[in-house]
Amino acid sequence: MTTLDSRQQATVDAAQVAVQSRGYWATVGVRIRDDKVTVACGVVLALIVLSAIFADLIALADPYKASMIKRLAPIGTDGYPLGADEMGRDMLTRLLYGGRLSLFMGISPIVIALAIGGTLGLVAGFLGGRVNMAIMRVMDVFYAFPSVLLAVAISGALGAGIGNAIVSLTLVFIPPITRVTESVTTQVRSLDYVEAARASGAGNLTIIRVHVLSNVLGPVFIYSTSLISVSIILASGLSFLGLGTEPPEPEWGLMLNTLRQSIYVNPWVAALPGAMIFFTSLTFNLLSDGLRSAMDVRL
Amino acid sequence: MAGRTTGPVLSAEDVTVRFTGRDATVNAVNGVSFTLEAGEVLCILGESGSGKSVTLRALMRLLPARRTQLSGRIEIAGRDVMAMGHRTLADLRGTEVGMIFQEPMVAFDPVYTVGRQIAETIIRHEGTSRGEARRRAIDLLDRVRIPSPERRLRAYPHELSGGMRQRAMIALALCCNPSLLLADEPTTALDATVQIQILLLLRELQRELGMAVIFVTHDVGVAVEIGDRIAVMYGGRFVETGPVREIMHNPRHPYTRGLLSSTVHGSLRGRTLEAIPGSPPDMTRLPPGCAFSPRCQFAEPRCETPPDEFRLTPHHMVRCVRAADG
Q1: Any B CB within 8 A of A43 CB
Q2: Cis? peptide before A248, omega within 30° of 0
Q3: Do A297 and B110 touch (CB under 8 A)?
Q4: pLDDT tens figures, B264-284
Q5: In this complex, which of A200, A211, A298 lies closest to B172 when CB atoms are compared?
């Protein structure tokens, strides 16, 4: 019995030593490696992103080359592995090229909104009082509109185009990111270790840079990753309404729009851009979930 | 340490703290005065809400400036704390004065290793190289009796036990050789065996480094263990101060007596513990006279006016009208 106990104790000690000897990122890496869903999502997402970046190398055809004979060719037609769209352009090629714009329009608004909203939230949360009041009430005004409606309204007012679509999407995502950053910052600010840091002589800037940022960035970053899926869908939606990309540029939302009329003729081909949007946003969501559980030191 | 003056490490005079809230003003500290010599340990003893922790934080001006009114005079190592700007204040904290908190779990930032947090503080205050700061951190962990300090340096706060974390906290507070250590109930969150280890360690380090310590606690036993002097606090005032021995053997304030008789002593076996009737005063509406009078069994009309300090001996002060009667 005692030998068993001591042996168990030894195993526990060994495990503790193993955990302690590893750095933070190494621990995160091991956790992600053990999480099969996250790994699978990461691989799929990497494939989608890489295929979009290297579209010129992979694609067999010219994304703009139309053919009257091959219009709406079904999946598996010779030379058109995923069929052709309503103008007879190769679907596979257009989906690969479309990924570039869709991903760009989905991710860049989040990156910009993270920089702006994150800063606003940090300032509001850390300073509190009137500054907080001013920033957060302005954000509440944006919150009053449904996000889709707000994006459409801003895009409509600014006019069609990729740049304007990105501006409108950025504006849509600043308020939620600001709010999340503000609430996490407020929470962190009142914790003992911030006071302990102050008691050991840290100034406001050091506290924000070292203690607040490092504790706030994780949750906010993960929240932003989950917003990318929404952003991709919204960007596609704007293009679908004719407010984002303009034809003949390949973009998933726009392709979905133009193929809409062919849904009764060739539903499989018409559904492909939608499937791409769905898979991309799904993998982003699952990946951000996986990252969240892997990056929390305390779990 | 260079520049240390020969006068008292700390002198506080008429320190008053008020928190102005939306619907009430809390009179947390109402005129606390004391001096602390180098190498002296003062225990501030009192129940929850008596203003102990607030007094401690006021000494370092750690209270949120927006809602706090702080007045009085505070001098640490001969420098006027009340007149300091933000930068000077930040330099003072951590170098001249170190602080230990009640909850070692939450007093460390969870996303950095213990070693990094200690090293950062050393670098910030003394501008040493990273390697030198690391060496100092190992040395400090060794000093607070943390086994295999090199490995613990790379541990995250949640990977350490409560006692170990509190030791690391002490190491952090001591990293720049402060002349004054403020300890805010550092043993309350620990269990009894670890508690005594930490107390002994603190006492030892205090003697070794010749620091002055202010130790806040609600535990009479802890106060006796560690203190040279005891200040009993009630309603935001020191009601009785004096050397530990004298307070223990000759308590003069009814509140001190109540505290002592409601604590377990070895000699009192077989007797029922007495409790102080009533509950601590509402700090938003303190009675005009002696704050303890509503709970005091000896209360009389004279208690309606605030009692003055009465000195039994040069070192033993009591704030009670009855003390003067002898």
Answers
A1: no
A2: yes
A3: yes
A4: 665 556 667 778 888 888 888
A5: A200
Element (H, E) at B164: helix B162-174
Interface residue A130 vs chain B (CB under 8 A):
no
Name the pTM for this structure: 0.72
Q: How far apart are the first and last CA of chain B?
A: 45
Residue A110, pLDDT > 50, answer yes
- Is B214 exposed, middle or buried, given 0-12, 13-18 or 19+ CB atoms closer than 10 A? buried
Max alpha carbon distance in chain A (Å)?
83
Which of A127, A193, A217, A296 to probe the B interface (max B CBs under 10 A)? A193
Query: Which residue from B101, B103, B111 is facing A214, i.e. has the nearest CB?
Result: B111
What Rg, from alpha-carbon coordinates, does chain B have? 21
B99 at A interface, C-beta within 8 A: yes
CB distance from B151 to chain A under 8 Å? yes
Tally the residues of chain A: 299
Asked whether the beta carbons of A116 and A139 are under 8 A apart, the reply is no
Token pair belonging to B316: 């033993």
Q: What is the DSSP string of B41-94?
A: EEEEE--TTSSHHHHHHHHTT-S-TTTEEEEEEEEETTEESTT--HHHHHHHBT
- Residues of chain B below pLDDT 50: 1-5
The separation between the first and the last C-alpha atoms of chain A, rounded to the nearest angstrom, is 32
In the structure encoding, which two tokens stand for residue B168, read together? 């690391």
- Set of chain A residues whose Cβ sits within 8 Å of the Cβ of B90: 201-203
All domains of chain A in start order, with CATH: 36-64+71-294 (1.10.3720.10)
Query: Are B158 and A298 a contacting pair at CB < 8 A?
Result: yes
Burial (CB count within 10 angstroms: exposed 0-12, middle 13-18, buried 19+), residue A49: middle
Q: Is A3 on the interface with B (CB under 8 A)?
A: no
Q: Provide ipTM, 2 decimals.
A: 0.71
B286 close contact with A: CB closer than 8 A: no
Integer Cα distance of A126 and A114 in angstroms:
17
Strands B316-318 and B310-313, by their bridges, are antiparallel
Residue A116, class by beta-carbon neighbours within 10 Å (0-12 exposed, 13-18 middle, 19+ buried)?
A: middle
